[in-house]
Amino acid sequence: MDSHEQAPLGIRLLGGFAVRVDGRPVAEEAWRLRRAKSLIKLLALAPERRVHREQAAELLWPGHAPSGNGLHQVLYTARRAVAADGRAGDRLVLRDDVVALVGDGIWVDVDAFERAAAAARERRSVAAFREALALYAGELLPEDRYEEWTATRRESLRETRLALLVELAQAHADAADTAAAIEALQRAVVDDPLHEAAHRGLMRLFADGGRRQQALAQYQQLRDALRRTLAADPDPETRRLYREILASQHAEPAEPPPAAVPPPAAAAAPPSAAAPLPPAAAVAPPPAAAATPPATAPPPARPLRPDLPHQLTSFVGRERELTELEGLLRHTRLLTLTGPGGCGKTRLASALATRRSRDFPDGAFIVELAPIADAALVVEETAAALGVKPRSERDPIDVLGDQIGDAGILLVLDNCEHLIDACATLADRLLRACPNLRVLTTSREQLRVPGEVAWRVPPLSLPEPAEPDLDRLERSEAIRLFCQRAADAAPGFALTPANAGAVAEICRRLDGMPLALELAAARIAVLSPAQVAERLGDALALLRGGSRAGLTRQQTLRATLAWSYQLLTDPERVLYRRLGVFAGSFGVEAIDGVCADDDGSCAGGVPLDLLAQLAGKSLVQVEPAAGRYRYRLLETVRQHAREQLAEAGERGALEAAHRAWYLALAEAADRDRAPEVAAAWPAKRLDAEHDDLRAALASAIRDEPPAALRLAGALWWYWMARAHFVEGSRWLDDALAAAPTPTPERARALWALGGLDVRRRGTIRTVRLGADALEIARRSGDPHAEARALERRGAFAMGGFDWPVADTAFAEGLALADTLGDATVTVAITQAQGALAGCRGETERSRALLERSLTLLDEIPEAPEPLFWALHISPIGLPAGPGGAPRFFFEDTFCLFRAVRSRAGAGYVLVNVGETWRADAEYGRAHDAFERALERFRELRDDEGAGVALNALGNLARSTGDADAGRRRFEQALALRRAARDTREIATTTVGMGMLALYTGEEERGRARLREAEAIFERTEDGPGLQAIPLDLGAFELDRGDPRRACALLERCAELSRERRIVPNLSWALTELAEAAMAIGEPDRARRALAEALPLLERSGDVRGSRYARSLNTRLSDA
């Protein structure tokens, strides 16, 4: 046995953490706390195995102090793990604020390796070097690659091993064993392709053995790796050796060295200087099963699906690069493609992701960051690409990491350079949190994250100088790309002996840069290759001040762009630079609205004609989209266009025009002001404009704050529909801070911010925001505006679950509306009071108010302005328990924030009438009301309203026990909600389907549906939704299943409800908890629950809930 197995306490850190106590391995389950293992690791690496407690706390809890007795808990767990024969306290002690591993017989492999290395260097024997190297079982603590306290020591040990390999090779060479020496050095090169000493050793051995071509190839391999990774050349000593070997080839023909002899298999992956990232599932990407949680785990965060864009043009060449990158992607978790703009990073990353997407069971996704200027939006864009919504008061990266979880995905972050810090932070933290995630980035510079492998994208392969053979010329990737794109621009173009020289010159002059080649090829429609080559030379000379020496790739790209710009006509130049104002893709209408002069022309030209000319010259990209074309500038082209815009002195004017256009677009699509525009402006239509809406908001906040308020107010419905709650709130907060003057626009922005706040997790500001907006209305002196503000103040108080405030606001608003004779405010408040009464269990009063609302609505024509925001009685109390005992269910969204006019408003009122009948067990009347509502919505072609009515009919079927009808209605509702991409409503319908299955005897299916819904709520950080699952399931378990399990579920609901003070859910969960506690013989627990619930129910005026809670109190007193 080795010393590790013989020692009383043996600790292995190299190749992975393992501990033996008296020869027996410590089982994984003995380490109940991860930090307990980390503490042993820290001590094993520390000098004298001692660490001050403050240092230990800082390393184990980076960024914050441990809570309570956290360190003592870690110490206790670690002591138990390393205990032997009851001597735990003897080995791990805390004395005088110092934590230490003490005692004899402690063996650590790192210490053993370093001692053996020192001995080998002293003895200089092959056996000694091999003995030392045998102790290096792998890198230090590979599972802790991201821990800063391991990085320095890991690199030091790695360097020691590499140095030992070089010294072992020398020992072999001294013993005349050349083959063994070469093998040792190749092992070093495999581990570090940039290790120059190892490369030099191989060069000498190959040259001394008469294998000079192989020696020169070894130098070529090193040079390529250095240039690709560090953009550097070998050091002077290595270059000198190369010249010496080259000079010794007197009898050999001068020809390029052949490819280097491939080292062992692992050499395919050149690493960066940083420590490598931990592999996901060893070498290969994780199998699909890796993302499947155990039966007791929560459901997976989301079903991820591939989302790679289809390319419209062919991908030319890059086979060697793709093969190499595929190998790298198998061996590293963070791969960055670096290089200047236009070198093909994005296209190469897309091709690589497409090739390897099958290796990632949960998909490959590309996040296009080029249109984003705000670092705060990096996480939002990433979440959008993955199809998740990080709405939370928590750190959004933590939320996104939780949502990705164990999913096996490839995430491509494209164009990171202008957001480098945000991208580095995102990649670093997601890789720490998500074990099966791999990240591929493109950037003009490295992210500089530990473990990153940076791979510089080379230019396309170039033809040899003065190469006359057409077949050999066409082997050049640059030639092939130029010819393919030239043929696109000028059908019939082909490489011929007559133009081959000029084409080769163009490719060499442009350094094989794909973007530059494509721009040059576009000119073949009007210029010959010889003319292109001639003009290209003049442009490059101009930008370099006449010097044709030392051209860099970036300067070449800029020269190409400047040359393309100079070749444009004056009207083309004007449109080109004005297009630089757009942040994302744009349509023809936007060009006319933003870039045209007052007379509709652009510097005298027709904008559409100029656009076609720019597209034909590859300066504008054409993107098919939903039956019409949209246009986009490549990022490097856009930056150049913006530079020209600034130089022309037009930037301020164009940004103002851009703001005005997108403000008008947002207001035209504002369904909160005009519900009828929803058909013409679905949310997906604004998706395409989102980048430019953001840019317009940013410039408005900076230069025109009142316009920012208008724009944000017009967009809040879109943020609500797309669940951009966090982003929308941030824009509104910024706009409100920039424009503090109390105006109607500010009041509307406050209403919008309050509406978004209802959906977010965390403290609800809705009631306070409503008060601020009401104060602005009162200051305006407009009594109609004040009456409307009181109605909205009441609705906000309902959404904020402060129902007494809602009562007061509604009473004041109704009195003022009656005085003014404002029927629109009267009906809005009356229907809201009816919904609130229904939530309180006052079903007769609720129906009376709702029926009065219907009468009033019949008397109000379809006015231009919407009447109110739709409300829905939910959660709802139903007589679902034994003997008609009330149970509380969350079945659909309470505050819908959908602006409606009289006819659609009547549909929502009818749904609420049906809910009151259902609460009274009058199921036939409930069915009639729901069907009338559905008929109304279908007449109006209102799919959102129809989804609400169908969902209500599905839930009604649960009450009546009609499983077939319920499934049919739910499937219809789900189809509508999926078509609208309404994530929240999809989840609520899924909850209804699950509860229907449970109550009709299909428990397995029902629980699966509830897990599916819970995963959606978890992914979207939906606070009320997360409370719905334990509330609904708790009621089922109370009556049909296990009261003890019901207690646990209802406790969970109560805990979640306390976080946001959602009083209805909290009070009802506590009341049902009391009944469940009584059922399992825990009266004290029941009394505590009722003591908290009853005051809440009474303050909120919940008649049914208060009566129910008092009856339970009576039963407890009588027991």
Can you characterise this structure?
This protein is about 60% helix and about 5% strand. It has about 1100 residues and is an alpha/beta fold. Among the domains are: about 70 residues; about 40 residues; about 140 residues, Rossmann fold; about 80 residues; about 100 residues, Arc Repressor Mutant, subunit A. The strands form six sheets. A five-stranded parallel β-sheet has the order 9-10-11-8-12, with helices on both faces. It has a four-stranded mixed β-sheet with strand order 3-2-1-7. Helix 22 packs across helix 23, helix 31 packs antiparallel against helix 32 and helix 32 packs antiparallel against helix 33. The chain starts with a helix and ends with a helix. About 5% of the residues have low confidence. Pfam families: AAA_22, BTAD, HTH_77. This is Transcriptional activator domain protein. GO terms for molecular function: ATP hydrolysis activity.
Strand content: 5-15%
Class from secondary-structure proportions: alpha/beta
The CATH level-2 architecture of one domain is identified as 3-Layer(aba) Sandwich
State the separation between the terminal residues, measured CA to CA: 69 Å
Unreliable residue stretches: 249-306, 537-556
Helical content stands at 55-70%
Spatial order of the strands forming the largest sheet? 9-10-11-8-12
Largest sheet: 5 strands, parallel
Provide the residue-averaged pLDDT.
Answer: 84
